[in-house]
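Running this now, will post back.
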Amino acid sequence: MFVIANFVYAIAVILNIVVYFAIFVLVIDALLSFIVPYGFPMRRIFDDMAEPMLRPLRRIIPPYGMFDFSTFVAILILIFIQAFFVNTLFDLSVVLKR
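Update: finished.
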C-alpha cells in the first residue's frame, strides 16, 4: 500500500508546484501589464502563459472599467485548488501509509 501512498504524495507535490508556478505567472503578468508595454518579448512570454488561464474567466467576468478582475479570480481559484485538492492528496497519502 505504501507504493500507492507514495504515488499519491508525488502527484500532490507536483500539483502543488504547478499551482504555485501558475500563481507566480499570473502575478508577474499583472505587474508587467502596469510597467512594460505589450511589444516587449518578456511581457509577451508571460502573457502567452497567463492567457489560457484567464481567457475562460474573461468570458464570464467582463472588465469593470479599466479593471480586469479575472487575474484576481484566477488566483483565488488556484488557492482553492491548493488548499482543498492538494492538501486532500497529502492527507490521503498519509492515510494510505498506515
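The two ends are 8 Å apart (CA to CA). More later if anyone needs it.
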